[in-house]
Amino acid sequence: MRPLLESDRDLGQYTDSALSILEIIANRRKWRMIVYKGKSIDVWQPIQPCVLCLRFDCSGFALNTWKRFGYSVYIDYIDDIIKEEFQEITDVANVFPMDFVVLYKNQEGQENSELLHVARVFSVTDSIDKFKMIGKYGVGPIKVDFFHEMFDRYNKPEFKS
Q1: What is the separation, in whole angstroms, between the first and last Cα of the chain?
Q2: Alpha-carbon Rg of the chain, whole angstroms?
Q3: Is the pTM of the predicted complex or chain greater than 0.85?
Q4: Which pLDDT belongs to residue 122?
Q5: What is the DSSP letter of 113?
């Protein structure tokens, strides 16, 4: 990823009409479109002042773009970045702390799965179910969970991000 430039297109301010006035003030975001390796990518920045946990989401944390550049990548564009910057690990024995984890919604009969969540490996053991993950759920606090807890959170039909 890269820093924002003056030439990056401003897409305006985001507000969710379902939020209360206090939540809207705390959750204001400025959307920008950047061109990264020839592709258009939408990113967002918080509009200050806002509390720390509202300044970035799971993608900003996992990709480290929030800390490095002050923005989070909109989830619909994560796949493009993954293909450019990461290699798939096919053997669990080759997974190490801080490796990137991508959780997809598996739908039978569909070729393309929906990306649900991104996080980082926190600690590894002999079983993937005992791996611990570190990440954020939306704009909530940073949290360490076992892999199965993260998976179960997103595998429920009533889950909302």
Answers
A1: 24
A2: 16
A3: no
A4: 94
A5: P
Residue with tokens 């997809």: 104
Q: Judge contact between 35 and 1, C-beta under 8 A.
A: no
Q: What are the tens digits of pLDDT across the range 33-47?
A: 777 778 888 887 776
Nearest CA-CA partner of 141 in 16, 75, 54: 54
Q: Measure the CA–CA gap between 108 and 115, rounded to whole angstroms.
A: 15
- 33-65 CB burial, b ≥16 within 10 A, e <16: ebebeeeebbbbbbbeeeeeebbbbbbbbbbeb
Eight-class DSSP state of 125: -
Q: Which residue has the tokens 């720390």?
A: 52
Q: Which of 123, 130, 124 is nearest to 149 (CA)?
A: 130
Local structure of 76: helix, strand or coil:
helix
- Residue 116: CB atoms within 10 A of its CB come to 19
Name which of 137, 12, 5 is nearest 75 in CA terms.
137
Domain residue ranges of the chain, discontinuous segments joined by +: 9-82, 87-154
